[in-house]
Design a protein that fits this description.
Elements: H1 2-21, E1 26-33, E2 42-44, E3 48-55, E4 58-67, E5 75-87, E6 95-108, E7 115-126, E8 133-141, E9 154-155, E10 159-162, E11 171-180, E12 186-198, E13 205-216, H2 221-245
Antiparallel strand pairs: 1-2, 1-6, 3-4, 4-5, 5-13, 6-12, 7-11, 7-13, 8-9, 8-10, 8-12
Length: about 250
């Protein structure tokens, strides 16, 4: 009887973890410029979405990839890959800013909290002026809202790099890990990037990548030991009670 109960418990936990790891992320993308141009919202009920073409004063090429890392239920991620932004024919004197908002819903990790969010990004400026910059922020959305507006949940520190002017190599933007908690079984991730290019440098372009990774915080060994002792105590109590009852 005790073995059957134990096997049933293990099977139930396995089923829960399996459901948590099989959730599929849906991605949303919105682009807007300081000149008033916007894409509206691009959606894809899958894990990849991209955009390429002119938008207001900018030429934009973006590929966005989302991954729940199938088979690894302890990890969730949202990546902005190969975003290349340059000024087009509609640029004006002064700073021109493009805002990229990417969001993915239906992320799931095994039950338990807290979770740790890490944000990293890189940027490469070409032909830039000292006013050109990239700012990247990640959000952990406990509401898991399925559609925009892109409301902010718990945010990681914004990482910003300003070009010193001219050509520079790739600059890494690393935010300190942020401990977050979720309100329910599912959660959403959002990445917001603003790219500013001066109108005085029409040949300038910026390439950037941004990534957000959320992992389950592993309990300390002492906490795990206490939990194990508690479980053994409960099992011992159950066996002792069965012996007293003569079962």
């Amino acid at each position: 009887m005790t073995r059957r109960i134990l096997f049933s418990l293990v099977a139930t936990i396995g089923a829960v973890l399996g459901l948590q790891s099989s959730a599929s992320a849906d991605i949303y993308l919105e682009l807007s410029t300081s000149g008033g141009a916007t894409t509206g919202v691009l959606t894809n009920p899958g894990d990849v979405i991209s955009f390429a073409g002119p938008l207001g004063e900018f030429n934009v090429s973006i590929s966005l990839a989302v991954s729940n890392v199938p088979g690894t239920p302890s990890l969730a991620s949202l990546n902005i890959t190969n975003a290349v932004v340059s000024l087009g024919s509609g640029f004006v004197a002064g700073n021109n800013t493009l805002t990229i908002q990417a969001k993915a819903t239906n992320y799931a990790l095994p039950p338990g909290s807290p979770l740790q969010m890490d944000s990293t990004a890189s940027a490469t400026f070409v032909g830039s002026t000292s006013g050109d910059k990239v700012a990247f922020t990640s959000y952990f959305d406990t509401t898991n809202s399925a559609a925009p507006p892109f409301t902010a949940g718990t945010a990681s520190p914004t990482v910003t790099v300003v070009s010193p002017g001219g050509n520079t190599g790739s600059i890494a933007l690393n935010a300190a890990p942020t401990i977050v908690t979720r309100g329910g079984a599912l959660f959403a991730l959002a990445n917001v990037t603003t790219i500013t290019i001066s109108g005085a440098a029409p040949l300038a372009n910026v390439s950037m990548n941004g990534a957000t990774t959320v992992t389950a915080v592993v309990p300390e060994p002492s906490s795990m030991a206490l939990a194990g002792l508690g479980a053994l105590g409960l099992m011992g109590y159950g066996l002792r009670r069965r012996q007293v009852q003569g079962v």
